[in-house]
Design goal:
heterodimer; A: 114 residues; mainly beta; 7-stranded mixed sheet; 4-stranded antiparallel sheet; B: 113 residues; 0% helix; globular
């Protein structure tokens, strides 16, 4: 398995502001992902965080709204920019480890935008 | 486009009962299938991973099966306990979509003492 730490665990933010979520993994991983879970819904992949290059975004998600950094193989950040109430969600960091392709998730960051 | 469906959406059972959660997917060309557990407001805990070449995986009271040709997986929970109460999510990975998982909507399980 993997130990994945996310900060903050939760936050309440004002409309129009930005929040950066951090994800720290206990060892080096190649694959690192950011997911969103809107209230009452399942998970949707936002982007793949690539070390040393720009993140790969899924359809419907753009870099200006969700800038991602991946400075090394154990750390990544996701910023939710110019927030609106529709951004209220749980944001989850995920990593892949080993040859099986199993994915592991952090505890999530619950964001409420007023 | 892969679609994953989980039935039922919610399930309430008395403690001690054996139960089955269902997951179906439309594209059988999967790389693997993973079952997760999610407690309210929390992240996901990986329960079982089944590779496309496998038929089932077991961990303690949990057994997951995979029938790739029919696009189905089941998660069997034996002798359920109140601590099993959570949302159970099924997710599949297709070779064509890289490392992206496609998730079902989940089954919310309540085990009553």
């Amino acid at each position: 398995s993997a130990v994945i730490s996310q900060k903050p665990s939760r936050d309440i933010c004002q409309r129009g502001t930005s929040l950066t979520i951090q994800c720290q993994v206990d060892s080096q991983v190649t694959m690192m992902f950011w997911y969103r879970q809107q209230p009452g819904q399942s998970l949707t992949l936002i982007a793949t965080a690539n070390q040393g290059s720009e993140a790969t975004y899924e359809s419907g998600f753009v870099i200006d709204k969700f800038p991602i950094s991946r400075p090394n193989l154990t750390f990544s950040t996701l910023t939710v920019s110019n927030m609106s109430p529709e951004d209220s969600s749980i944001y989850l960091c995920s990593v892949g480890r080993g040859s099986t392709g199993e994915l592991f998730f952090g505890e999530g960051s619950r964001l409420t935008v007023l | 486009k892969q679609e994953v469906t989980q039935i039922p959406a919610a399930l309430s059972v008395p403690e001690g009962e054996n139960l089955v959660l269902n997951c179906s997917f439309t594209d059988s060309a999967i790389y693997n299938l993973q079952w997760f557990r999610q407690d309210p407001g929390k992240g996901l805990t990986s329960l079982l991973l089944i590779q496309s070449s496998q038929r089932e995986q077991t961990s303690g009271r949990l057994n997951a099966s995979l029938d790739k040709s029919s696009g189905r997986s089941t998660l069997y929970i034996a002798a359920s306990q109140p601590g099993d109460s959570a949302t159970y999510l099924c997710a599949v990975r297709n070779p064509a979509s890289g490392s992206r998982l496609t998730f079902g909507e989940g089954t919310q399980l309540t085990v009553n003492p």
